[in-house]
Amino acid sequence: MNCQNDKKSSRITLTLKKYIELFVRIIKSISHFFGVVIIDKGMRKIVELYDIHSASGQHPDQTHKRFIHNTSSEGISEEKEPMNLQDCLQNKIAEIQQIKNDFMQLKIEKDLVDSKCAELERQLFLDNNHINNLNDSISELTQENDSLKARCMPASKIPAMIYYGTGDSTGKTIRKISTEKSSQILYKLITHPGNTSKANFYPIKNDNLVEVISNRNIMLGACEIISIDSNANDIETIEYGRAIFSDNQWIITSKAKIKLITV
Cα 56–61–66 angle (5° rounding)? Predict the structure, then answer.
């Protein structure tokens, strides 16, 4: 009797192994979406078969026949479900392919941008080198010019130089220095002979003299106004102002004294 039970258990074990091997092959051969449904239903049938056998003591071959019959009868009703899963799978594959295409297009555009950036960096490097070369040339020319000036004329022999410029609102400096006179010029500077770092200055007359007088608090900040006539339309210089050249600008050390007169 024990021998028969052992044989029966052995046959049950072999049958279950066959089912398991069958579904392992199914797992390896079908896609993810379709396989999940079939595997789930198959495993449920295996568990159901084993439960029925355990409860009734019937041979697993008889239960297997009912399993095959039930599976075949349900197959017709389940035909549509795999088709829906196949359509879903195809849609997902199409979406993945579209994502791949978009990624490739973005990669192409990124490569173009990287290429342009590299070209701009190269051009910037060349421009910086060119600017550095120009600065070196300017420095060399400045040194050469200073050397020529020193050889041609000693500082003590340099005559008075004439410059033109405009004042600022603070009345402390004269800026926009030029050797040429223009309508925007307000002051004339005359350097000391033999010393180009010191100069006397005074306001000059130009086409907008009336406007200058009207805005004297701003435009004539480098001057000390001694008196103002009614309806003044001209400037009379009483005493030159004085300035020194420092840090590339003329700094006022003494304001020019003037009168605003009517002529």
Answer: 75
Amino acid symbol at 35: G
pLDDT mean for each 10 residues of the chain (263 residues): 53 66 61 55 64 55 47 49 74 84 86 87 87 84 73 73 89 90 88 91 88 87 93 94 91 95 91
Q: Which two tokens stand for residue 46?
A: 């295996």
Q: How many helices (H) and strands (E) does the chain have?
A: 6, 9
For residues 207 and 184, give the distance between their C-alpha atoms in angstroms, rounded to a whole number.
Answer: 9
**How confident is the model at residue 76, as a pLDDT?**
46
Question: Which DSSP category does 255 fall into?
Answer: P
Is residue 188 helix, strand or coil? strand
Amino acid at 152: C
Task: Give the C-alpha separation, 142 to 147, whole Å.
Answer: 8
* Nearest Cα residue to 194 out of 244, 245, 154: 154
CB atoms within 10 A of CB 220: 22
Separation of alpha carbons 172 and 250, rounded Å: 9
So what's the pLDDT on residue 151?
64
Predicted pLDDT of residue 68: 46
Per-residue pLDDT, 67: 44
Helix (H, G, I), strand (E, B) or coil at 108: helix
- The widest CA-to-CA distance across the chain, in whole angstroms, is 149
**Rounded to whole angstroms, how far apart are CA atoms 155 and 248?**
18
Q: Given CA atoms 47, 49, 52, 53 in this order, what sign does their dihedral have?
A: negative
Residue 240 to residue 256: CA distance in whole angstroms? 5
β-pairing, 223-228 with 256-261? Answer: parallel
